[in-house]
Design goal:
Blueprint lengths: L5 H13 L20 H19 L19 E5 L6 H16 L3 E2 L7 E10 L2 H7 L1 E12 L2 E13 L24
Parallel strand pairs: 1-2, 1-3
Antiparallel strand pairs: 3-4, 4-5
Helix pairs in contact: 2-3
């Protein structure tokens, strides 16, 4: 007795066509990320935030033909608030950001009731797997501008930092309070 395998092959192909394909694992496309190696790069980071604020709040007004018009003469007042806990990098970044904003025509208020509040934070991310491959950590900077309790805009960017420089970016909290206690026991 001769066995025909053709019906079996068609049956297997037919059943295989009814199954949904399993997703194939892929990697993300190659992207580029800047690395913070010197204080000058903190100024680059401040420039990125200042440019974003300028585009968001001042923009470039155009007429009907798309030609740039002169900007409104009324200055925009900002109140740039430092994070509650500063790192060495965020303290220097704050000064550089103020300079960049003033150079772009913003007025910086020194009183918390003056101008639109601008807040920022700098957070570090260190992953053991990433360190094994690159010996780098990453810094995420977030900046927000508010108006009347609502976000007007938000900016986020990510940079590499060499792992030995990580301490420059870690926020320093207030000094802990300590108390001497006598322990009395049986």
């Amino acid at each position: 007795m001769k066995i025909s395998y053709a019906p079996l092959v068609f049956l297997c192909l037919g059943l295989g066509a009814c199954m949904s394909p399993i997703p194939i694992q892929t990697s993300y496309p190659t992207t580029y990320q800047r690395e913070m190696l010197a204080v000058h790069h903190w100024d680059v980071m401040a420039t990125d935030v200042a440019n974003w604020l300028q585009n968001l709040l001042m923009g470039t007004p155009t007429d009907e033909q798309g030609q740039a018009k002169p900007r409104n003469a009324q200055p925009i007042v900002l109140n740039v608030q430092q994070p509650q806990y500063n790192s060495e990098a965020s303290s220097v970044f704050h000064s550089l950001l103020l300079t960049q904003l003033v150079n772009r025509g913003f007025v910086i208020g020194t009183n918390s009731s003056e101008g639109l509040p601008v807040t920022y934070d700098i957070k570090t991310v260190t992953e053991p797997v990433m360190l094994a491959e690159t010996d780098n950590s990453e810094v995420v900077i977030n900046a927000s501008v508010m108006s009347g309790g609502s976000y007007v805009g938000r900016f986020s960017d990510i940079y590499y930092i060499p792992h030995p420089n990580l301490g420059l970016y870690i926020a320093q909290g207030p000094a802990p309070t300590t108390r001497m206690m006598e322990v009395v026991g049986p």
